[in-house]
Amino acid sequence: MTDAHEEAGEAARWWATAVSHIEPGSIELRDRPVQDLIGTAGLVDIIWLMLRAGLPTPRESSLLEAALVAGVDHGPQAPSIAAARMAATCGVGLNNAVATGVNMLGDAHGGAGQQCVEMLTDIRDLYASRGSWQQAAQEVMADWQSRSRYLPGFGHRFHPVDPRRDPLIGLVRQAVRDNVVGGDFLHAALAVEAILERRRAGARPVPMNIDGATAVIYAELGFSAPLARGLFVLSRSVGILAHAWEESGQGRRNKGPIPRSVLPARLPQPKDA
User: Is 232's pLDDT higher than 90?
Assistant: First the structure.
């Protein structure tokens, strides 16, 4: 019997977690009985609770919700959504279609928010010794652009000005004025934007995009850079689900990337064939 108790204790320690506790007749999320949360806490509050082990203030919850709403969808041309729509016609089921879309969210498509939080954090840290947001931003930008031509969170391949930028940054500005957040990451992002505007005077602007604006919010609220990507995945999965569900009701089978009607009758052959 002692051996059995020791094995049970070892198994319990193996799966020990502070996230939830389940016993017969009892479900606790971060030590809070689920029945106390049902009807009193919103979904965004629960996301915060599960990730941060506490509940947000109403203003923090509202700011996080704004970021999540802004990233929900960007049309069927987005690779994650296109992949989910095609998967939905292949007989794999709705959950598999959503998983297909979510699994498309990588460094190039879906990772810019995480990368932007990392860049803004570098600027914030350097500001402590430079005493100038512009100087700190210039140095960090130079380092980032020595490795990549792209600055995460700035510019958009489709929108000259991302329509989500202004309302999100406006909410952050108000939150700073009301002492809800500190404002360091906002200052860092605006410094980058100002430098890019001066560099590209007369050319196509490279303003902050959705990844940059939400990165500011996630960082100001204290979420780590990897969680910025995780939160974006939660947000975009809503749009992925909606598109997969719509596609599943349209009766197509094995949908490809282009309509069959425009497929060439014969694929072009190599010149040396």
Answer: yes
